[in-house]
Amino acid sequence: MLQLKNIFRWYNSGVNRAFVLRDVSLDIAQGEFVSIMGPSGSGKSTLLHILGMMDEPNEGEYSFLGENVLKIKEKQRAELYKKHIGFVFQAYHLIDELTVYENIETPLLYHGIGSSERKSMVADILDRFNIVGKKDLFPNQLSGGQQQLVGIARAIITKPKLILADEPTGNLNSKQGQEIMELFKTLNEEGVTIIQVTHSEKNATYGSRIIELLDGRIEK
User: Fold this and answer.
1) End-to-end CA distance of the chain
2) Fewer CB within 10 Å, N- or C-terminus of the chain?
3) Which residues does the chain have with pLDDT short of 70?
4) What residues contact residue 130 under an 8 Å CB cut-off, 6+ apart?
5) How would you classify the pairing of strands 67-68 and 2-13?
6) What residues are paired with 28 via a beta bridge?
7) H-run or E-run covering 19
């Protein structure tokens, strides 16, 4: 499904380069559930952002569904992302001016889905996440855990082929966290490819494969 080849990411720090990722190569097949682990500062989130087309490497190649991501125009890349990828952010990234309902509905507007179908899809997912009572609230009226649930609901509503999740249960209590991991497991069994960054050993075991990052390199 996707392939990274010899990926380097660095920042210039004076005359020196501060490397975040060093020579990362990775193949992920359709239907895999991969957990990326490693200490803080090991490059996990940067790797996820490159996979999610939100950041670009300084060197290397990235192929997604047969497309050479780094060679296509930005507009095509945005289309590829919107059509196939759902991203669960660690910092929620909800739109402050929109209600819970509108935040969850936003990706459906990008997909050109009609009004009645949108209503039905949003109603289903509000029910699934047990947040029907919060639908008219704004993000700043929600707890961190509730914002995270809304972010996850928004990421999966379009039934993406790939879900990228950055510490998806970091702001949830243990019961909510387990429910989200079970939901990811179910989605994965339905054929959705999932790549999660996690500090939790327990959450990592939901994946079929664990990748360890250390100092920007994949530990062999």
Assistant:
1) 21
2) C
3) 220
4) none
5) unpaired
6) 2
7) strand 16-28
Q: How many CB atoms lie within 10 A of CB 163?
A: 22
**pLDDT tens sequence across 85-129:** 999 888 778 999 999 999 999 999 988 899 999 999 999 999 988
Residue range(s) defining the domain that contains residue 116: 2-218
Which CATH number covers residue 24?
3.40.50.300
**pLDDT reported for residue 44:** 94
Q: How many domains does the chain have?
A: 1
Where b means 16+ CB within 10 Å and e means fewer, 62-90 reads bbbeeeebbeeeeeebeebbeeebbbbbb
Are the beta carbons of 36 and 167 closer than 8 angstroms?
A: no
**pLDDT attached to residue 202:** 93
Query: What integer pLDDT is reported at residue 26 of this predicted model?
Result: 95
Query: Residue 66's beta-bridge partner residues?
Result: none
124 Cβ partners below 8 Å, 6+ apart? none
